[in-house]
Amino acid sequence: MIKIQHISKRYRTVDALSDVNLEVPRGTIFGLIGPNGAGKTTLLRILAALITPSSGEVWFEQEEVTQAPSIIQRKVGYMPDFFGVYPDLTAAEYLEFYAGIHGIPRPKRQRIINDLLELVELTGKRDTLVETLSRGMKQRLCLARALVHDPEVLLLDEPASGLDPRARVELRELLRTLQGMGKTVIISSHILLELAEMCTDVAIMQKGHLVLSGDVEKVSHHLGDGRQLEIRILEQERLDDAMHLLKDIAGISNVTHGEGNLIQAEFTGSDQELHTILSRLIAENIPVVSFAPRSGGGRLEEVFMSITEGSSPS
Ligand SMILES: Nc1ncnc2c1ncn2[C@@H]1O[C@H](COP(=O)(O)OP(=O)(O)OP(=O)(O)O)[C@@H](O)[C@H]1O
């Protein structure tokens, strides 16, 4: 678990972070979302010990680390939001260079490099000049670079920006693999939907403040207390019956007819009550095809827009 307590950072006249408190559970894929200038990069750079906060504490498990950069550097891998300039190095040489920087003994390096190239699916590119790799490949190589010393925590600044949809799917799969390896991953983005599909937890930031954080479901449900319910039924003729029935149930509001035979409604209540609603529909012989609280980015997007009013998410 990483605990960020009362972290503030002031650059001359700019308050980049103001009293940020955040807990990142171990093993999560944690998204930092916020418009440009929200303070995401500043927070990641503090967590990577690249800059020190003006005040506050960062705890990695039982250790306070703001004054102990060597602990952070051992535990954390950081991927910045820019690729930088590559000297004339092949992918393997590039990783070898960073393995050297991390003091990994020479005899161990080749195996680590082979494993990392395999992990990020660049084995076939090991002797290719980095400069000639595609953007997605460079991105994955940078990720491999951040993993060279086998850190517990990975910090990825805007990893999805500029990636095409396929590269984004590959990145998401890679992040899941890393999570499966027990790593905690913190990623930032100013484009909410990029993260909604990748993260288990999110924190929304604006103008140096943390506005809201928690697991994706919890944050998605933040708007009102309710969740959005989507019910699809088989036969158009039963649509009105189903809508009437739903409108009479306590806890259900805003029942509307969506595309095709879809009914959408707001729902406040427990999973037990949700189960009761489904049972009532079935008891009335309404041919339910699917019954689901709406999840994913759409809802999160609404939350984001409502609490970062006036700021565009992209
Ligand atoms: N080195 C610096 N000197 C002065 N001000 C800075 C510096 N770095 C960042 N800032 C300011 O701090 C605030 C937060 O910037 P930061 O880069 O952390 O935000 P961000 O959420 O990562 O934004 P972006 O998505 O644009 O990268 C901004 O107002 C920015 O101009």
Contiguous helical run count:
11
Report the biggest beta sheet as strand number plus sense, adding barrel if it closes: 6 strands, mixed
Enumerate the strands of the largest sheet in spatial order, edge to edge or round the barrel.
6-7-8-3-9-10
Give the C-level CATH assignment of the largest domain: Alpha Beta
Alpha-carbon Rg, integer: 23 Å
Pairing-aware structural class of the strands and helices? alpha/beta
Question: What do you see in this structure?
Answer:
Helix 3 (91-101) crosses helix 4. The chain is 35% helix and 27% strand. The protein folds into two domains: 2-215, P-loop containing nucleotide triphosphate hydrolases (Rossmann fold), CATH 3.40.50; 227-298, Alpha-Beta Plaits, CATH 3.30.70.100. The protein contains eleven helices and 14 strands. The chain starts with a strand and ends in a 7-residue tail after the last helix. It is of the alpha/beta class. Adenosine-5'-triphosphate (ATP) binds next to strand 2 and helix 1.
